[in-house]
Specification:
Blueprint: E1 23-28, E2 31-37, E3 51-52, H1 56-74, E4 83-92, E5 96-97, E6 102-113, E7 116-125, E8 128-138, H2 143-146
Antiparallel strand pairs: 1-2, 2-6, 3-5, 4-8, 6-7, 7-8
């Protein structure tokens, strides 16, 4: 996998504090690996418990977004908005991601056709898989049309 010097915040069309990931560990055609460390100030963190495992779906979705951002930038295109359409077979071996844990999120492209994509995703902690799912995503050419923006009339 290739290293990445671009900050995650420049790869996602999110505003703070909703950029949930910390680092890009590496990427290549069809795949990316990112990381997040669970801290007391992490969004969705509950005191004494950590972050609920179902938030892992958003970590996976943002990892897909990071991949799309890297791919776009490598082609000289801007970072674009994307949508999570659905999740298949989400499984978590834990109920909570605990404070101090460093999670590594891997996504691998399974299918891509223009603006639709399917990614196999997994979250590892200390070398063990703690969550996995398949995500269906959509990245329109013109997000303003999807968001109800002006049609030029």
């Amino acid at each position: 996998m290739r290293p990445c010097a671009t900050p995650i915040a420049d790869l996602l069309p999110h505003a703070p504090p909703m950029v949930l990931l910390d680092d890009v560990l590496g990427w290549d055609q069809g795949q990316v690996r990112v990381a997040v460390t669970i801290r007391p100030d992490s969004p969705f963190c509950e005191s004494g418990r950590g972050v609920p495992a179902h938030v892992g779906i958003e970590y996976m979705a943002q990892a897909c977004g990071v991949y799309a951002g890297l791919e776009g930038l490598s082609l000289g295109l801007p970072v674009r908005l994307g949508y999570l359409l659905g999740t298949r077979r989400f499984q978590a071996a834990v109920s909570w991601f605990r404070l101090g844990e460093r999670l590594e999120i891997s996504v691998t492209e399974v299918f891509r056709d223009q603006s639709m994509g399917v990614f196999d995703c997994r979250i590892d902690c200390a070398g063990c898989e703690v969550a996995a799912a398949q995500l269906n995503v959509y990245q329109p050419e013109d997000a303003s049309a999807v968001l109800g923006g002006s049609s030029g009339e």
